[in-house]
Records
---
Amino acid sequence: MECFRYVENGGNLDLLNRSILERTVRRGPVEISNAIIHDRFALIACIVNHRSKEDDVRSMISEVLASVDELRYSRAGGG
């Protein structure tokens, strides 16, 4: 299990990471979860399948970053 946060300058990182979680789960192909660590909202990638490959991890990262891109687009007035 790996905990991580998406970080960018400015704004509420807890709210940003909650939004990333919601959007990533809605996108569907990967599942991530969350935890509160030292009063901060964190994302969790838990890969327990013994058949998981490096590509599975890369896919999860790609989906999280795609969610970030969608959030940026919607904040910029794109939808």
---
Amino acid sequence: MSAADRGWWTIDVADDAAGEDYAYVLDGGDEIPDHARRGSPGACTHGRDTWTTQAHRWDDASFAGASARRCRSLRAARRDLHRRGTFAAAITHLDHLRDLGVSHRRALPVNSFEGSHGWGYDGVALFAPFSRYGGPAG
């Protein structure tokens, strides 16, 4: 790795490295996780990480928000919307929620956490969507 500005370190990684696990080793010590990672294999936030590429590009130029005065909000975890608890499964319920009058869906944090059930407030892997929700690809 090479030193960059303001204490950051960088490395160029080949595009075909996506899906490979990695960890940092400083001065021959133990493996440590990358706390700015974008993927965590399984449900482990303290182990090796998975190299991911940012293939998705947000495009919200045509988005028009709803009026806050007419807001009917629902706050729920993915597992509360469907027994599979994935991003894809939750999407299948959006039309039903709209038909019930819900105009805004407030997502709980989606970052990785230890175990199979959590609220996402662990603060460990803030940039890595929980693998069981669908991970970065989901």
---
Amino acid sequence: MNSKRNSLENMRDCVRTAFKNGSKRGHEFKKMRHAIIVELKRLGFTSSEIKDKLLEWNKRCERILPPSEQKRQLLNYVEWTDKHQCWLGCKGLEDFCIGQNKCLFYKKKTYMNRKQVKRTPFDFNRAKRFLEKRYRAEGYVMSLILDCLRQVQIEKTTGETILIGYRAISSFISHHYGHRIDPMTVYRRMQDLISEGMVEVVVKGKKGQFGKPANGYRFLNWKEHVHPGKATTHNNLNV
């Protein structure tokens, strides 16, 4: 249990501040109730332990909820989150942000994410040539999707998991390359990239860049198919 007590210090800075000081009723209370639950789940606390922590937090809030409301607004809500895939990123907490230059959680996360994505697991140029040869015009679209994922990964410092929806990919390609590709086409070509073993889906249905449902993608250690009598080699390159 000591390790879990210590891990409270690993909460996002804004959430840890709200947990220690309490929250005002209304929007702040509801947002931080959700954030505290999500953070404690991330840190390995059980549902029973989370309920105890919420009751502690309630005593420090603007007005202490009576027992009947504690059960309805706190304990039952923990049970609700147990049944759903709940998640909350920094964007969802921007109203309570203490500033990226002060937030130790943000600095640590950014450092780790940059370290994770410094190199890609395969040669993008080789992959693009392979796709355009195998799929022709469709392969070119697949190449654009790969470029989109990589650029978002770098610009947003996402780490290995790139959270983005089909509409966002379509908008990115239109803005950066001038090609109008509808989201359904993006979906089909993404399935081809998955079947080729270049990317995989590691998260489903969370909110992406524009607040719409999005998947989380990760690049795999792809290798070009080797035909009998032919040999190919790969070197990991920065892209």
---
Amino acid sequence: MAPILWIVFAVIVLFGVIAAFILYTQKGKHEPDYRTFFNLGLVFFIIGLGSQNSAMWIIGLVFFIVGLTNKDKWKKQKKWKQLSDKERRIKFILIGVLTLLVILGAVVVLSKRGV
């Protein structure tokens, strides 16, 4: 396997260990955000169908169903006006980075197709 794949794998494992440690050290029971399950399921399902990857769309379908069956437990999202200045700044940066990644991804795909 290429070295970059090992690096990506190591980073994912590291983030998983950090997340598990944070959840383990938190006091009280952690309640999952089922709206996130719904959104992830929708994205995985669409990408799985588009890439003809059966494992991805099946996982997406499972997440989608779990999120939808627990719709009554969805957490309320704050409106933009209700966010603190720090939360707004973080959200704005995340939106900017994700937009940049989508644009760069489109450029890479289109350049490989010769468009």
